[in-house]
Amino acid sequence: MKKSLNNLKTKNVKTSNDLNSTSFNNRNDLSFTNSLQGTTATTNEDDVYGDDEYQEQNSGELKYPEGGWKAYSVVLASLLGMVSSFGLMNSTGAIESYLEKNTLKTTSTTTISWIFALFSFLTFGGSMVSGVLFDTYGAKRVVIPGSIMLVGGLMATANSTTTWQFILSFGICCGTACSLLLAPLVSCIGHFFNKKRGLALGIAMPGASLGGVIWSQVCRSLYGKIGFPWTMRVIGFCFLGCLGVVCLLVDDRTEEIRKHNAAVEGTDPTVRPSVWKQLRTLIDFNTLKDKTFMTLVLALLFNEFSLILTLTYIPSYAISKGYSESISLTALTAVNGAGILGRYVPSHLSDSWGKFNMISLMSCMMTLVIFVLWLPFGYNIGAFFTFCVIFGFSVAGTLSLSPLCTSAISKPRDMGKRYGTAYFFVSFGNLISLPIGSAITQTSAGYNGMAAFAGGTSAAASIAFLYTRYRLAGFKRVKI
After folding, report:
1. CA 126 centroid distance within chain
2. Most CB contacts within 10 A, which of 107, 210, 242, 340?
3. What distance in Å separates the CA atoms of residue 308 and residue 391, rounded to the nearest whole number?
4. Distance between CA atoms of 387 and 367, rounded to whole angstroms?
5. What pTM was estimated for this model as a whole?
6. Of 177, 107, 102, whose CA–CA distance to 143 is shortest?
7. Mean pLDDT value across residues 240-252
8. Mean pLDDT over all residues of the chain?
9. Interatomic CA distance for residues 220 and 232, integer angstroms
10. Which residue would you say has higher pLDDT here, 380 or 65?
11. How far apart are CA 457 and CA 300, in angstroms?
12. Which residue has the higher pLDDT, 7 or 100?
């Protein structure tokens, strides 16, 4: 009996240390997987990973500062980084609408859409790679090149005049730069906080929506005064200041954690893990044999289809309905502003209502507001802005709940692998969603057809979320 207990204790300690690793498949990178979709990483983490006994073992094995100048300076770096990188992603609609009506007005909307499709694809798809690079080389060695690329990409965007130049400067250069920034800027928080991780992420994550508000308004204010090229340069100089501070403050405990794990496992602490080996373990197609997980992947895919289309084309839609460019960009600001609350409220309510219950509710809200307000009454400014606020809140809710739902049906050691597999497919959905939507706008259906398509994909996502919930609990009224 005593021998069995000792074996169990040894097994638990090893599991704790494995989960404490800095690889993508570990517990620390829950902060990264949450960060991609903007979740606050609240106490739901405890629901995913176990009970207080695990937490005690974890805190006993690896100490976290839980505060102090170094820790909170990393949080500030993450906040400023989110304002720049994710904020730019939330402002792409402001850039797309201007190019469509001005610089690239002789180019088809479908061709223009590839600029932003590539940007979105590289940002999300590349973030998995930057997560591995962060685990191997630490934050600064990934963030500094990403910062240089992002500022340089914006300056190149300012000088671009043709489609292929915008594809290279904004789509590829800025997209790759954002992918290099996203994972390290949030994963580093997990190196300094454990019990207070939710608080720390709650301080940093609003930067994504805040950046969307700021840069949309900068575009609205400056396009008419100094033109597109200098507006991009102004944003680039702002990024230079923000990201300069980020590069100075960002830090990590990669070497300390590697030495700790090496001591426990009896391995050489000077040997870095192979980047290629880690990348190969990020995606596991065998997980698709789990029908519940597969339906969740379909739900996430359709959800991203709808939200990318809507967030990118809201300004262009508004202009097509006769609204001014200023109103169209204010509408995008309303979406991002509502998203600040949407990133928190649904996540907190999921503690008592259930993750799948809440994400299904948020997805159904997205679908209803598209078909009830946007599609039939988009020409009315009051209805249009009401749609923007409700949609912004609900779409942010689905984004914040997505990683929580993924983790809820995954074993702890498979969480990163499953999340990587899911967003491997989602990133390809991001690549084709904008060209498909823009092609629809060129038909007789116009932007109403695009809105209907966004509503249809949102409805498909809602059905898939509800079916996933049904597979887990049937029709029972339970927290799930």
Report:
1. 12
2. 242
3. 12
4. 11
5. 0.78
6. 177
7. 91
8. 81
9. 12
10. 380
11. 10
12. 100
Distance CA 480, CA 478 (A): 6
Tell me the torsion sign for CA atoms 50, 56, 59, 61: negative
454's tokens: 């966004």
Q: What is the pLDDT of residue 262?
A: 66
Q: Which one-letter DSSP state was computed for residue 50?
A: -
Confidence at residue 357, expressed as pLDDT on a 0 to 100 scale: 95
* Tokens 């730069």, located at residue: 177
Q: List Cβ neighbours of 365 (8 Å cut-off, separation of 6 or more).
A: 390, 393, 394, 397
pLDDT band at 128 (very low <50, low <70, confident <90, very high): confident
Residues 429, 387 contacting (CB under 8 angstroms): no
Q: Report the chain's terminal Cα–Cα distance, integer Å.
A: 37
* Beta carbons of 240 and 148 less than 8 angstroms apart: no
Within 8 A by CB and 6+ apart from 247, the residues are 140, 143, 144, 147
For residue 473, give Cα distances in angstroms to 231, 294, 349, 431. Answer: 52, 16, 19, 34
Q: Tell me the CA distances in angstroms from 312 to 59, 114, 120, 269, 315, one per residue in order.
A: 43, 12, 10, 46, 7
Whole-number Å distance between alpha carbons of 36 and 402: 10
Calpha distance 185→29 (Å, rounded): 11
Q: In this model, does residue 295 exceed pLDDT 50?
A: yes
Cα 319 from Cα 314, distance rounded (Å)? 9
What is the predicted pLDDT for the residue at 7? 47
- Going by C-alpha positions, the residue among 102, 158, 90 that lies closest to residue 325 is 102
What structural domains and CATH numbers belong to the chain?
19-473 (1.20.1250.20)
Is 267's pLDDT higher than 50? Answer: yes
Q: What integer is the mean pLDDT of 76-91?
A: 90
* Spatial separation of the C-alpha atoms in residues 470 and 480, rounded to whole Å: 10
Segment 138-182, tens digit of pLDDT: 889 899 999 999 999 999 999 999 999 999 999 999 999 999 998
Mean pLDDT lowest among 7-11, 105-109, 443-447: 7-11
What does the block give as tokens for 179?
């992918």
Residue that the structure tokens 């690549």 belong to? 431
183-196 pLDDT per residue, tens: 888 778 877 877 77
Residue type, 6: N
Element (H, E) at 303: helix 291-320
